[in-house]
Amino acid sequence: MIRRPFSNSLIVLCLFACLCLLPPTTVRADDELVAIAPADWPWWRGPNRNGIAAADQKPPLTWSETENVVWKVPVPGKGHGSAIVVGEHVYLQTAEQDRDAQSVLCFDRATGKKLWQTDVHTGGFDVKGNEKSTLANSTPACDGERVYVNFLNNGAIYTTALTRAGKKVWQEKITDYVLHQGFSSSPALYGPLVIVTADNKGGMGAIAGLERATGKPVWKQMRPKLPNYPSPIILKIAGKDQVFVSGCNLVTSLEPLTGKILWEIKGSTEECVTSTVTDGTYIYTTGGYPKNHLAAVKADGSGQVAWENGSRVYVPSMLVSRGYLFATLDAGVAMCWKSDTGEEKWKNRLGGTFSSSPVLVGEHIFATNEEGKTFVFKADPTAFELVGENQLGNIAFATPTICGGRIYHRVATQTEGQRQEWLYCLGKKGE
Fold first, then answer.
1. What is the residue-wise DSSP string for 24-71?
2. Beta strand pairing status for 364-368 and 84-86?
């Protein structure tokens, strides 16, 4: 096991000061945010950071360009980040190469009307990297008071806070960044902090915790000189909240408020993309370079690996529910394993290539391939059961957001070389 010393001796005093200054409606004693309603989807992978929507949601199981469309709006530029939904607003990041602008858009949740667009960066575009990538791959996060976004710009990673009306509050440079494939890490909110990751091969990779109120760095952990892409994910295991990051040939657990490394083991692989999930005992790490990798790691720092296999779940994050692990492999195959043993329960070819992550709502899993086809199938470990196939546009990399009985889906259409992005709100008629 690898351990690193913790150096911020005054961190506890700083954090108590931050907690006292924040509105009581935003943070409570156990550091969970309370300004978020049950029908909201405030950050990457949803309220519980696991890709699982409230079971009582009743989103449509079928749709098309005309069926079950509540509203549809054009999105300028290009991006693969998902929409978030808080209160009456929908937020989305985009990058417009024709005017060298990276921005945040806000839409009315009920009608789709664009309420504002704020440029976070102008100029500083780096168009190298993977051809599938964009300069707006990240998903925003919102605490009910401010919207927080990450962008790669001018060779560095910046985190920016905006008011709900689109006014910039603060901006903080996290680290210099050497572009390899792209940048896709989304911010995570915990208590008074915004937690961000920026692994890269430039030697200045970092995980950092910033004050939500000011952007001031509270803690920072330096990382190996390797490219890596996951977002930080905060999960509670055995009564303890932990920030998990896999990749750089490590599996790392940190204390969210201090950045102290709780445990760190050699494992996973060099480059990862997916966000970690847990069944309460194990966390599940996946990677795709230089080897395909899927493993169940005991989340106590012991380094115990319960099982592993060579499945390529490189980009789409997984789902774990009721003792079973569900995944869509990059190559278009849906799979189910028993989460504690790795026993394969079933696999079924869907078709296409997948970058978008699946979302679980009740007994249904929604999984979208890169061609814009969403497969709806049962989260049933006994057998694969396809419920429906739905087409929107012909390009889709963003993960659908499902809350309040509706689906917010970012797709694009490309015809004769002309590309246009759209944000759809899908819902059952009359609801």
1. TTTB-TTS-B-S--TT-B-STTTTTTSSEE-TT----S---SSTTEEE
2. unpaired
Q: Is the pTM here over 0.70, yes or no?
A: yes
Distance CA 104, CA 108 (A): 14
pLDDT at 310 over 90: yes
Q: Could you count the other beta carbons within 10 Å of the beta carbon of residue 204?
A: 18
- The answer to whether 317 and 274 have CB atoms below 8 angstroms apart is yes
Question: Given strand 277-278, what is the order of strands in its sheet?
Answer: 277-278, 282-287, 293-298, 305-309
Distance from C-alpha of 303 to C-alpha of 266, rounded to nearest angstrom = 8
Q: Residue 36's pLDDT is what? A: 80
pLDDT digits 0-9 by tens, 167-179: 999 999 999 999 9
Distance CA 335, CA 374 (A): 16
Half-sphere exposure at residue 50, Cβ-oriented, CA atoms within 13 angstroms: 19
Query: Quick check: helix, strand or coil at residue 17?
Result: helix
pLDDT digits (tens, 9 = 90+) for 204-252: 899 999 999 999 999 999 999 999 999 999 999 988 999 999 999 999 9
In one-letter notation, the amino acid at residue 180 is H
Longest C-alpha distance within the chain, in Å?
Answer: 60
**Distance between CA 147 and CA 129 in Å, rounded?**
27
**pLDDT higher than threshold 50 for residue 126:** yes
State pLDDT tens for residues 68-116.
Answer: 999 999 999 999 999 999 999 999 999 999 999 999 999 999 999 999 9
| Tokens 């990450």 sit on residue | 150
- Rounded CA-CA distance 169/359 in Å is 32
Of the candidates 289, 252, 253, the residue with the CA atom closest to the CA atom of residue 267: 252
Domain ranges of the chain: 53-80+355-431
What is the rounded CA–CA span in Å between residue 424 and residue 202?
A: 38
